[in-house]
# Entry
Amino acid sequence: MARTSKPTDGTSAPAIRAAIEEILNSGSIAVLVTVIQSSQLTVGSKILVTDGQEPIGDFGDVALNQAIEAATPEFLRTRTEAKASSISDFAPELTRFSDLLLLFERIENEPRLVVAGAGHVGASLARLASLVGYQVTLIDDRAEFVARELFASPSERDVNLVAAKGWSDALREAIGNGRAVSVAIVTRGHKQDEDCLRAALSANPNYIGMIGSKRRTNIVLDKLREEGFDQEQLKKVRAPIGLDIGAVSPEEVALAILAEIVAERRGGAGGPLSAWRRSST
# Structure
């Protein structure tokens, strides 16, 4: 029989709060697991599971603690923000906790989008992503394209505008450690694309996309391949960027790009939701 100990109580709450603050400050990720229904455990009890570290909190049963810790990677792979799970979903052998219901919550910073290029498409993408809830940084080497008066509406005031002296340094600084960061490269030419893509690949964000025709993007990717960039890294670059929605205007192109970024973040397929109906008729 698994060893049991005194279930966690409010004494772990300060440690969990401090750990969450540290996780957000560092750009890391964790899972907070909360009891929302149980006849044995205190509703509201929590365990924080962090990557590579000992969990903070204790539900009073070693086997239960271990099962929860083992279940968190699968939850993170679903890319959902929160999910309620019964113990039978991931540890059916723990029958003594048959009525246990847990809430798994992803703990990480708000999603960030770094847009390289403040032309018509880049500016439209920055505005749309900010409206959707992304923390947006818009970079251009032309200061007049990232002037604050161009982004003065209430929904645009939080867009971080960067007049870059050099694309590479500005990109790397904006991307940081790459966690929860998407990068959209929508500059005006091959040289700028190459500089931005080099910097983005070295920073390893969650998503990298680059605008341009198949020919133009292949030229850039082939050049970086010749320079020694890893083939698997280059395969992850979404180029041409965006979903195929038949976009024409800059605003439509921005919508296609953001749709792909959201699909990548959430694990969506990017197809029509009605496809199941058509395939069954």
Remarks:
- Residues 1-9 have pLDDT under 50 and may be disordered.
- The longest helix spans residues 62-78.
